[in-house]
Amino acid sequence: MPKQLRLNAFDMNCVGHIQHGMWRHPRDQSRRYTDIDYWMDLARTLERGLFDGIFLADILGVYDVYRGDGDTSIRESVQIPVNDPLLLVPAMAAVTKHLGFGVTCNLTYEAPYTFARRMSTLDHLTRGRIGWNIVTGYLDSAARGMGDQKMIGHDDRYDMADEYMEIVYRLWEGSWQDDAVRNGRDAGPYADPAKLHRVRYEGTRYKVDALHLSEPSPQRTPVLYQAGASTRGRRFAAKHAECVFLAEQSKRALAATVADIRAQAAGAGRDAAEVLMFQLATVVVGRTEKEARDKLEDYRRCSSVEGALAHFSASLGIDLGGYALDEPIRHVKTDANNSFMDAITRRTESTWTRRRIMDQVVLGSRWQPTVGSAEQVADALIEIMESTGIDGFNLSRTVMPECVEDFVDLVVPVLQERGRYKSGYETGTLREKLYGAGRARLPACHPAAAVRVESR
After folding, report:
1. How would residue 336 be classed by pLDDT, with cut points 50, 70 and 90?
2. Which runs of consecutive H residues, i.e. helices, occur in 154-249?
3. Least buried of 49, 176, 220, 238, by fewest C-beta within 10 Å?
């Protein structure tokens, strides 16, 4: 049986996400992001299209590197204003039965004790459909908002993240035994204190002495997503992540990154095939190639080059406004997005300049869209999957909600006809939908299993 594609919608609780300027399009409805009906309608459409999930990005801070301030980001709505992603989940879960929810939460500014409860709560309310995209942030503006002068160093953030994961694993997996909740049967207690275990941890940054506040949820630990492709980020993903979000600029670089993470996962004693890889993709599809090309030209009239440069600069940690048009972008060690810096200076086959970035900004982002008829789009996605070893795509939005509706109505049926996409959902939790029935919990080869307590 041919390998089937997995799909997530890639979105954010804001006006302008990745394709900057699309909010100016007369049919775009992203300015309704504060309307809960907008998100519930989107969830229904994604479930109709059998999407595995919606991956909700988030950022703390303002992109203020470009030209030395955040004015461009504010004018162009480059992920500002932005609201909390977690609060969308219960409303979307209430109108769906199968759609998964991957939410981005920055552990640098979240206490593990309270964060663990928040995720357990969402796992309960969604009946086991929650996932966590583990990030540590990279904006100095966020650090200043939290009372610091600048972000913690890049690799130091990952060291902190390893410590953080140890704590939340103990809270989710090691505090309550499976049979701790008695629920008042036979006039007994609701929960048996003897079957609860205090988590005691003292590390370099964190100290915890507590019981987990939530009773065991369907998955215990949420499905774990991770999106760092730097050297340190790959090592972290190989140890912890179940799903890895990649945004490589070429198929060659993508295949190399996939192979490296899987090799490291195998070296860590995990089943490398179960580390699922999702590549960022943007699709403009029509009933014919001409219709798709016409739609692309219609969209691109709204694209914002300045917005893209503001986002690009913050990701790199360098002000592209200070570069001449044809000056090569040099590798500079920053504490921003190291994987992106490496992608355009080291893991690239050609030189990147500000002119090249501006020429490549087709829809207000640095990624080229896949454009064509449904058959052509399906061909392209399948070819990328087969040539690189990825498992699926995170599809970023253009003009909302028509871009999602177009994909569901046009591309999904073609993929299904070719046997490359599911015709229905599996039952169970998000993890069971990804890995099979009876797999609601993390497997024994995952480091979280080492702190699991068994009923006795």
Report:
1. low
2. 154-174, 231-240
3. 49
Whether 135 and 106 have beta carbons less than 8 Å apart is answered as: yes
How far is residue 252's CA from residue 107's CA, in Å, rounded to a whole number? 32
SS3 of residue 396 by DSSP: strand
Per-domain residue ranges for the chain? 6-181+192-303+368-447
Annotate 425-436 with b (16+ C-beta within 10 A) or e (fewer).
eeebbbbbbbbe
Q: Is the pLDDT of residue 349 over 90?
A: no
Q: Tell me: pLDDT of 230 over 70.
A: yes
Q: Which residues fall within 8 angstroms of residue 316, CB to CB, at 6 or more apart?
A: 65, 329, 332, 334, 336, 337, 340, 341, 344
Fold of 6-181+192-303+368-447: TIM Barrel (3.20.20)
Question: Is the bond into 189 cis (omega within 30 degrees of 0)?
Answer: no
pTM of the model: 0.94
- Nearest Cα residue to 17 out of 57, 74, 60: 57
Instruction: Identify the pLDDT of residue 83.
Output: 98
How far is it, in rounded angstroms, from Cα 331 to Cα 328? 9
